[in-house]
Amino acid sequence: MYQQVEREWARSGEDLWVFAYASLIWRPEEPVAESHFATVHGFHRALHMWSRVNRGTPEEPGLVFALLTGGSCRGMVQRVARADVPAYLPKLWAREMPNPVYDPKWVNARTAQGTVRALAFTLSRRSPNYTGLLSPERYRRIFSCSAGRYGTTLAYARETYEHLRELGIHDRALAALLSHAPEACTP
Question: For 38, 54, 60, 95, which has the most beta carbons within 10 A of its beta carbon?
């Protein structure tokens, strides 16, 4: 997958745009030359992907965000200058794809400045990493107990929610999920 994405970008002869919809918004890989608000149609942000490394373990899986088909998603596009892409792309890949679970796709991201073709990390509902619908009790358990190399699922979800709010992006689905979080994170 990596080589395919790298080849497609190289053929474009342009800078690389990346669509950020969760932690890339508040913890972007460097260097980013510029960022803009963007909307992608045909996908929505969802906390429906198992994480057994970054936000959980094989014994106590956590959750991370993915783009699932349907609806639309407001986020940011980040431009990486062409000269910086050879160093940037491997770092981004190591972060987002420690296991090959996402389906990297090129999406059209609409900005106030125009539409750009951006790399996005999506998830198929056929993937074994797709959680399907989870009960409130399951979310409470995950929010209480799941942690991985980058911290807890709960901290990740809250950090994403707060940064989205600061940007004026109101994610009602995420707010509803966080209502299941315990006041204190206790395993």
Answer: 38
- Residue 47 is encoded by which pair of tokens? 């906390």
Q: What share of the chain is helix, strand, coil (3-state, %, to 5)?
A: 35, 35, 35
Q: Which two tokens stand for residue 167?
A: 């940007």
Residues 73-107: pLDDT tens digits?
999 999 999 999 999 999 999 988 877 889 999 99
Residue 160 has phi, psi (to 5 degrees) of: -65, -45
Q: Can you give the pTM of this predicted structure? A: 0.92
Domains and CATH numbers, the chain: 2-178 (3.10.490.10)
Which parts of the chain are beta strand (E)?
Answer: 16-20, 34-51, 62-80, 103-111, 114-122, 147-148, 151-152
Alpha carbon dihedral 128, 129, 135, 141, in 10-degree steps, equals 130
